[in-house]
Amino acid sequence: MKKIVLLLFISILINQLSAQEKIDPFRIKKEADRNYQSKDYALATKNYIQFIEVADFKVQKKSAAYNAACCLALQESIDSAFVMLDKAIDYGLAEKSHLLSDSDLEILHQDQRWEKLISGLSESDTFNTDPELANIVVQDVHNFWEAYDLAQDSSNQAASIYNQYYFEKASPGMQDYMGLKVRSKDYFIKHINSHPKLYQTIRQNTLKVDEYKKDIQKSFKELKEIYPSAKFPDVYFVMGAFTSGGTVSSAGLLIGINQMSDGEDVNTQELDFGDKLLMNQSENIPYIVSHELIHFQQDGLKNDTITLGYAISEGMADFIGELISGETANRKIFDWAKGKEKQIWADFNKDMYYDRYSNWIGNYSKASKDSYPDLGYWIGYEICKSYYENAEDKKQAIQDMLTIQDYRKFLADSKWESKLQQL
Question: Where is the secretion signal located (predicted)?
């Protein structure tokens, strides 16, 4: 009887929320996350379930269903927790090791349904280790331009056109990119519609990926040389909403090609100062891919919330990415930092042992000519470069970086601060 009541509660809640006027999905998600952090698990459950209903992308629904399951388990609502875990699996949850290690779910381990659920998941993803076998997927870009042209001819039908010709045809990589980096389909369409001059002038540059495939493959082979245990996932190029030039997921490396499409004939008048900084020439494509390729190797890094850890993670991707491709993905930042090294480090010192990520990474909304964004990348790069330069065994240095467990110790071992004093 208890099981029936709990399942009925979830069903009624979902139906009620479905009938409500659609609201901003990410406002709901942020509220759910706040509820979880404050240990109001009942309200968090309600908000995560609501987010499932209003979210556009499968990866968002998967995460919310899993989080709801955790909240229900923490409330000892065992039956309902299993219902939400099943939903998460239906949406693509497959991380067996994560489920086994998540303390939120410990109460479920004694239930006979736990073993059955776990046995249906793979132990871990098996990734390709041959650099020549990684696929470079550009179909999503072509799908976008088909949808774009149709939407220009029928602007009042833009939402349904983009849905049919772009979103419904999405590759696994695009599905993840959209879910991880784009708030909603409406957000994406609003971005496209509010930048007509930009999208009228970048088409040819977004179609240049084929010109750089050999450079990308060369970088992959270079990584294999210096880091033999490297994994080489597929690379997906997509049209995003200027929310990420690149990221990674279990699907592979996910690149927002519209942020790699600057050029002489590109009209950027509609972009603000920060968004203009996000634009790169298409010749930077191999460097961005190399940066994300290094992120894909970082599953051995210690998870930490100190700003130093975030900076080292990003800077490492720039530094090792430069080793394998010949250039850093963020040359603009490095050029700006010249002559300002000591002041930047002095400012970073105030934040580095706190969780102040947004002061140093992804802070483009605060950008100005006197306050450059993403300086955490430069800091992490310099720390990793100093560590590498001081290492006698360079291959071991790469291994050390990709398996850092103590960021404070790594900083000390890098001797970066001593190097800085000599500048």
Answer: 1-19
